[in-house]
Amino acid sequence: MESLEARVVELEVKAAFQEDLLETLNDIVTRQEQQLDLLQKQIKALYQQMQSHGQGGNDGNPRHEIPPHY
Fold first, then answer.
1. The whole model's pTM is what?
2. Helical H segments across 1-70, by residue range
3. Which of 16, 24, 59, 60 could form a disulfide with 53 if both were Cys (CB 3.0 to 4.6 A apart)?
4. Angle at 23 between CA 19 and CA 24, to 5 degrees
5. In this structure, what are the phi and psi dihedrals at residue 57, rounded to the nearest 5 degrees?
């Protein structure tokens, strides 16, 4: 049988690894939340840009017109 001290040490080691894992996962979630916020802002800006150019996306600029052979 394992001694009580060995079991306590094993539990302390496991707890330390779990704390480290939780900190790492928290950092990852925080970074992903920041990335999502940025992506949402970019999507909103693109949506507003599309809305300002009208439904067809044609702003009167000949570069954005569909060629006649389409």
1. 0.61
2. 4-52
3. 59
4. 115
5. 75, 10
Residue 6: phi and psi, rounded to 5, are: -65, -40
Residue 53, burial from CB neighbour count under 10 angstroms (0-12, 13-18, 19+): middle
The residue ranges of every structural domain in the chain are 26-52
Q: 25-67 pLDDT, tens per residue?
A: 999 999 999 999 999 999 999 999 999 887 654 555 666 677 7
* Tokens representing residue 29 in the block: 């979630």
Indicate the DSSP class of residue 56. Answer: T
